[in-house]
Amino acid sequence: MASVGTVLPQQMSFDTPLALRSGATLGHYTLHYETYGTLNADASNAVLVCHALNASHHVAGEYAGQERSEGWWDNLVGPGKPLDTNHFFVIGINNLGSCFGSTGPMHLNPQTGKPYGADFPVVTVEDWVDAQARLIERLGIRQLAAVLGGSLGGMQALAWTLRYPERLRYCVAVATAPNLSAQNIAFNEVARRAIITDPDFHGGHFYEHGVVPKRGLRVARMIGHITYLSDDSMEAKFGRDMRAGGPAYSTQDIEFQIESYLRHQGDKFSEYFDANTYLLITRALDYFDPAREHGGDLSRAFAIARQHKFLVVSFTTDWRFSPARSREIVKALVDNRIDVSYAEIDAPHGHDAFLLEDPRYHGVMRAYFQRIAASLKTGGQDE
Question: Where does this protein hold substrate (predicted)?
Answer without folding.
Answer: 221, 352
